[in-house]
Write a structure and sequence with these properties.
alpha+beta; 11% strand
Length: 274
């Protein structure tokens, strides 16, 4: 034998891959992985975005059903503020959509959901959580200040801004007024954005890409993509700290702010500078 295996009566020989051939194969696999991984990540994120939008859709339908069964009155949108009367919101005899706020106690927070006003319409704790929300927290969505949540002095007496009945949502129409927003973590009371000041109150969330998922008073849902690179940068910078009171730096950033303020309050309470 000369060290090589041969098939009896044939000329075909069996030989191993050389080191160079193995390295070439490994390099090709690495290149393919580099090309495919971003596409796989995008596909997975699109699936999570779709799941989140489905959650918001179901919450919105529950929100509408609540109004249908309560003489057009919309649910108390201030998390944890059941049966309360404050200078910034009268919720006497109103059960909050989530009846309590326990961010450090998952079991207690889930009980808050089950006691909440929307639970009879949507009895599934998972619907209250985004697939990519902060782990260990019971819910990741918030209702806008304007939708029977917190009514700060700036909007008190402004017709159609802070509303307690669907019939008060007139101009613009319900298809343009925001109800739920995906913040990605638990938040007390509701999601706030200034009415009479040209700056954010709560920070813009960045979720499922360079934007966030939202729902409207007519029940439809969307993914809003931020226009401003400064909006996205700010959102990522404060994602875990929620600092608030931020002024945009670019024209596109101001457009993001105006869009959110109009979606929340229906209009701007000031003359925009950009």
């Amino acid at each position: 034998m000369n060290g090589k295996s041969t098939f009896s009566g044939g000329a075909m020989m069996r030989r191993a891959f050389t080191l160079i051939e193995l390295l070439v194969v490994i390099a090709i696999i690495a290149i393919l992985m580099a090309v495919l991984m971003p596409a796989l990540h995008r596909a997975r994120e699109q699936g999570r975005r779709a799941a989140c939008l489905s959650n918001l859709k179901q919450l919105s339908l529950a929100w509408l059903m609540y109004a249908d069964e309560n003489d057009d009155r919309i649910v108390n949108g201030a998390t944890g503020f059941s049966n309360s009367n404050q200078t910034w919101g009268d919720h006497r005899n109103e059960l909050a959509w989530v009846d309590g706020f326990h961010p450090l106690d998952l079991e207690a927070a889930e009980e808050d959901i089950r006691r909440g006003a929307l639970w009879p319409y949507i009895k599934n704790e998972k619907i209250y959580r985004c697939p990519t929300g902060r782990r260990g927290e019971a819910f990741h969505y918030a209702i806008m200040f304007s939708m029977n949540a917190v009514n700060h002095p700036a909007t008190q007496g402004v017709r159609g801004a802070h509303v307690k009945k669907r019939s008060e949502i007139r101009n613009p129409a319900p298809a343009y007024r925001l109800v739920f927003i995906d913040e990605g973590y638990m938040t007390s009371d509701a999601y706030a954005v200034n009415y009479d000041q040209e700056q954010w109150w709560d920070d813009p969330p960045v979720r499922h890409g360079d934007g966030t998922n939202i729902s409207f008073a007519d029940g439809h849902v969307e993914h809003w993509k931020w226009r401003g690179t400064d909006t996205i940068k700010r959102a990522r910078l404060v994602a875990d700290s929620h600092q608030g009171n931020w002024t945009p730096e670019t024209q596109e950033g101001f457009e993001d702010l105006y869009q959110m303020q109009k979606g929340c309050w229906g209009k701007l309470g000031y003359t925009p500078s950009h």
